[in-house]
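Saturday, quiet lab. Running sequence design on the C-alpha cells for the scaffold JK sent over.
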C-alpha cells in the first residue's frame, strides 16, 4: 500500500529533458540579467518566464502544452534581447551536467549546441519573433500509457484528481511509442536500405551508425563552429570506420550547415544518411517544397537541403492525460532530408543544409 504520492519536483527535470532545458535556460537568462544589470523591463520579462506551469507535467497539461512552453520561452528571449550579445560562439555549461555547451546569438538567430549529445542543436531561436523554433516535446513513456484502467483507487479509499481512471482512446498505440533520444535538430542518422519514413516515425527501425546521441569534439573559429565525430557504420557484419564533420556558419540572416561524411576504410560504402531537424510549427505554418525544401511560418523561414533524394516529414503528436481525459497534442514537425551516398574507399561527400530568413512573402 502506498503512503506517499508523487515525487520531488526536480524529478521532472530528470524524466523530461525539455523541462530541464527550460529551467536551465531560465537560470541562464536570470544570471545574465543580473550580470548585465539589464533593467526593470528585463526583470519583468524574466519573472513572466518563471511561470511554473510549463516546467512540469501535472493534471492540467503543463509541460505537454506547447502554447505554455512558447509563452515562457517568448518572455525569456525578450529578456535576453535586452542584454548585449556576446561576439561569436561562447562555451558554458548551461545545464550543469559537467560538460560545456556552445551558445551563439546575432540579431536573427540564437543557437545552443550540445556537443556531448550528438552535437545536436538543442535550441534555434528566431530572435525577431522571440520564438524558440526547437520548442518540441519528445514522446515520453507515461504510467497511464501502460495502465488504461490505472487510478481506480485502493479499496476503501477515495481517488485524488491525480488518479482518475481513464481508458486510452482508439489508435493510441500509434502515439505512445517513446522516442529513445530527444527530438532536437542536426541529428545524424544512417538508415538501412529498407527503412521507410513510417518506420522512422514509429521508432521501428535500426541505426546503421553510432552518431545519434554520442559525443562530438568541437572547434571554434570566429563565427564558425566545427563538430566532428569518428564513429562507425555497420556494412553487413563489418564495422566500418567513418567520420562525420559538420561546419555551422550563422550570419547574414541564415544558418548554413555543411555535413561531410568521410569513409576511413579502403572498401566502398553505400549509405543512406539523414539529418533530422525538429520545429515547433503548426499545419498552417508549413509548406513543403519538393524533396529538399520547406517554407516555415508563412514563408518567413526557408529550409533547404541541397541535392537531397527525399525529405521525410511527419507531425509529432503526444498522448497525455489531464483532468478532462486523454489529450492528443500536436508538438511540431520532424524534417529529415535523406541522401543516398556511394563512397569509394577513403572518399568523402559534402552535403549542404540552410535555414534562412526570407522576406518575399
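Result came back. Writing it out in full:
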Amino acid at each position: 500500500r502506498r503512503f506517499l504520492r508523487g515525487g520531488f519536483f526536480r524529478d521532472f527535470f530528470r524524466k523530461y529533458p525539455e523541462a530541464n532545458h527550460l529551467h536551465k535556460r531560465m537560470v541562464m537568462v536570470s544570471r545574465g540579467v543580473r550580470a548585465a544589470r539589464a533593467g526593470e523591463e528585463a526583470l519583468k520579462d524574466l519573472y513572466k518566464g518563471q511561470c511554473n506551469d510549463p516546467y512540469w507535467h501535472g493534471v492540467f497539461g503543463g509541460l505537454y502544452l506547447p502554447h505554455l512552453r512558447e509563452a515562457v520561452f517568448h518572455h525569456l528571449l525578450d529578456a535576453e534581447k535586452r542584454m548585449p550579445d556576446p561576439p561569436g560562439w561562447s562555451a558554458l555549461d548551461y545545464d550543469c551536467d559537467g560538460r560545456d555547451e556552445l551558445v551563439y546569438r546575432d540579431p536573427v538567430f540564437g543557437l545552443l549546441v550540445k556537443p556531448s549529445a550528438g552535437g545536436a542543436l538543442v535550441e534555434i531561436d528566431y530572435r525577431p519573433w522571440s520564438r524558440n523554433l526547437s520548442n518540441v516535446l519528445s514522446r515520453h513513456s507515461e504510467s497511464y500509457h501502460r495502465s488504461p484502467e490505472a487510478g481506480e483507487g485502493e479499496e476503501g479509499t477515495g481517488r485524488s484528481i491525480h488518479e482518475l481512471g481513464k481508458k486510452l482512446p482508439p489508435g493510441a498505440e500509434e502515439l505512445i511509442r517513446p522516442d529513445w533520444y530527444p527530438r532536437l535538430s542536426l541529428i545524424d542518422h544512417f538508415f538501412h536500405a529498407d527503412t521507410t519514413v513510417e518506420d522512422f516515425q514509429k521508432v521501428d527501425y535500426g541505426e546503421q551508425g553510432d552518431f545519434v546521441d554520442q559525443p562530438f569534439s568541437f572547434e571554434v573559429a570566429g563565427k564558425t563552429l566545427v563538430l566532428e565525430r569518428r564513429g562507425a557504420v555497420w556494412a553487413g557484419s563489418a564495422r566500418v570506420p567513418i567520420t562525420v564533420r559538420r561546419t555551422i556558419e550563422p550570419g547574414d540572416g541564415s544558418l548554413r550547415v555543411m555535413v561531410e561524411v568521410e569513409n576511413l576504410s579502403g572498401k566502398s560504402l553505400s549509405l543512406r544518411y539523414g539529418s533530422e531537424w525538429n520545429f515547433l510549427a503548426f499545419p498552417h505554418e508549413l509548406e513543403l517544397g519538393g524533396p529538399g525544401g520547406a517554407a516555415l511560418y508563412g514563408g518567413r523561414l526557408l529550409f533547404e537541403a541541397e541535392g537531397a533524394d527525399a525529405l521525410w516529414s511527419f507531425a509529432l503528436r503526444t498522448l497525455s492525460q489531464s483532468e478532462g481525459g486523454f489529450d492528443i497534442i500536436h508538438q511540431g514537425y520532424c524534417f529529415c532530408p535523406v541522401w543516398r551516398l556511394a563512397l569509394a574507399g577513403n572518399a568523402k561527400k559534402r552535403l549542404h543544409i540552410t535555414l534562412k530568413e526570407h522576406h518575399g512573402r
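Notes for JK: The helical segments are 11-15, 17-36, 40-48, 66-81, 143-146, 197-201. Residues 17-36 form the longest helix (20 residues). Ask whether to fix the surface positions before the next round.
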